[in-house]
Amino acid sequence: MFTVNHKDLRLSFNEFHDVSDKDMPQYGEFCLLELKNGDYTAGSWNPKDDRGKKSTSGEFIRGTADSIESGEVERWHSLECYDLSESLKEEGINWINLGPEKEGWHSVQFENFKSFADRKNPKEEQYCLLIMKDGTLAAGRWNKWRHEAGGSFIYAPALASHGSDEVWAWTPLSTDEFFAVELEAEKERKHEKKLNRNPSTDPELFKFGTNISVYYEKALEKLREEFRWATLTMMKKRTPVWQIAPLHGKYVFGQISKDYSDDSDIVTSWTEGTTAEEFIDFLYKYTHDTVEHANPEEKFKFGTDINVYLEKAFNTVKKDYHWLDKTMLGKTWKYNIKKVGGDLEFVRKYQAKDKYSVLDVESAEQFIEYVVYDYQNLALRENEAVASYAPSFGFISIHGWNLERYEFYRLKSGDYKVSVTAGNRTTGGSRDFFITPDCFEAKTYEEFLDRYLEIVPGHSFGLGKEDLLPDRDLQKFLGY
Q1: CB 279 within 8 A of CB 205
Q2: Alpha helix positions (H), 225-325
Q3: CA–CA separation, 54 and 47 (whole Å)
Q4: Which of 186-195, 271-280, 325-334, 451-460 has the lowest mean pLDDT?
Q5: How far apart are CA 87 and CA 135, in angstroms?
């Protein structure tokens, strides 16, 4: 590995290209950027007109929904043309020039490099210059993994990233809007933690103490006057459940969720009263509908043999997904009916070694619908794609997510499905839709689209009738 001490290392970038000279990178080239305000960041060049280098209109992409318009950039320096391996193997080197150093040329130095080997991590959302373990240069925005050690530097759409195990050393670039927001949030979290070290208690609000179970049990007594089957387990299916937690230096009745960025608690306080009795009345109303619709006689109306419910689901799916057979069912969730917290529940697990988890359903019909959806997805996974066609599309934003992929597949059975992928700056997802046989009963391609778009509506998934109707290649692919 490299013998240079990263703590003493300085990189000098000397050969910048001025945007004002209409001297732009190649399409997709990843560059160090000096902005007009003096800040430094990085990104890959994406011109609006890619027919020639002279066009300066476009953006430097740092990640999904994370880019810098070219009008904000003063000059750029490619990060793709260097391999520092040999220099980093020489002991005592503390200065590396990148590009010729000439009088009158613009230069900038980066130092204070840190290493994951020293157990140093960037701050969340911090954009950094990277020296990779293969000696190349890169950049990216730090995203710590939530449930395990390490993280990654996101540098392109669809969460393309450099893993921490690929990076030899890193140093922060300039603060940007995303990092500034995260810094302010971290400041607020620290202040809140300090306030909550010794929370106060309102005697009227917490008349019966600070054990939330006491308040649930008192509300349960009221519910049982109406619903003889009411239990605490049923009440707590109404989520989020209420807890007693510190907030701004005092105990409150609150609902707790997790902050996506750091897994810390977010407490939403109850504000509809000021006494313990009022909160108990509120709990009664809050859980009323859940308990009302948890009547075991309705939920298990077909008995307590799980196979009865699974057979109904299988027969429903088999009507359209004609290739599905029962030998495939071993490759998906295992369902059962078990007692949990004293109540009978529909439960599921994936593998034999897994624990069962409770399915929150209110009726036999709702459980069967749940299994139907599972079996439909299984059937699609078991039906191999033999051909595909992807309609072309430009930039499409769907409720804050960007459409990334929209592709039709012909399956081995002769049926069709479509797969849609969309994402934003930090997350994304894909979903497959089976194109049901009744769509192909349409006599014309236009009538087919009318039926198809009821399954995959344009306003929800990106492409509508006006986009798909003129596509003759798609029409041919679908057999029209």
Answers
A1: yes
A2: 232-235, 276-292, 296-299, 306-318
A3: 10
A4: 186-195
A5: 9
